[in-house]
Write a structure and sequence with these properties.
195 residues, Tetracycline Repressor, domain 2, elongated
Length: 195
């Protein structure tokens, strides 16, 4: 059995990676099939045949960003340790992820959420689903940490998740706009103090 990735899958992966980089720099609305054809070395016709529309390309880019976040931030955090340890690993991985993204632009999901927050349609709907999924997952870990008596019983999981996401969003903003070198260390300290 071969471990090779089929050529078509590699091509789509190349396109979606280029789309993520573009979204990180200029937002989800900036991506076009023509532009990504040039960036990936694929034909416009080939891209259009695969995605069918710009909106489908944008939705596929959201899924790639979601998968990347899970693979880089969430999944490695769940290996070993109790819920509080896992939560702190998520914070460490999220900070590392944002640190890399701030070199090229910003968080593709965060930028897309801001960009499409007031627009009705499938993109807004999918972004809201991804956010609710993340909120529910993080809340479940905080709740598990409370139940395991690893954090104080009066901690409200929904509030902790809100504060974590606010800290992360503002840390990225300060890093990019103000070039604050210490912001991620402060973000970790602030979150650790919450739990």
């Amino acid at each position: 059995m071969s471990n090779k990735t089929p050529r078509g899958k590699r091509s789509v992966d190349t396109v979606l990676d280029a789309a993520l980089e573009q979204v990180s720099r200029e937002g989800l609305d900036s991506i076009t099939i023509g532009q990504l054809a040039v960036a990936s070395g694929m034909s416009k016709a080939g891209l259009f045949a695969h995605f069918g529309s710009r909106e489908n390309l944008q939705l596929a880019t959201i899924e790639r960003a979601r998968t990347r976040f899970i693979d880089v931030v969430i999944a490695p955090s769940l290996v070993g340790g109790g819920p509080r340890t896992q939560l702190l690993k998520i914070v460490d991985n999220w900070i590392a992820y944002l640190g890399k993204l701030s070199e090229v632009g910003g968080c593709p999901l965060g930028l897309a959420q801001i960009e499409f927050a007031r627009r009705e349609g499938p993109i807004n709907t999918r972004l809201a689903e991804v956010q609710r999924e993340l909120d529910a997952f993080l809340s479940s870990i905080v709740t598990a940490a409370v139940e395991a008596k690893e954090i104080a019983p009066q901690v409200n999981a929904v509030d902790v998740v809100f504060q974590l996401e606010a800290i992360m969003a503002h840390a990225l903003f300060r890093r990019q706009l103000l070039h604050d070198e210490d912001v991620y260390a402060r973000a970790k300290e602030l979150f650790t103090a919450l739990i």
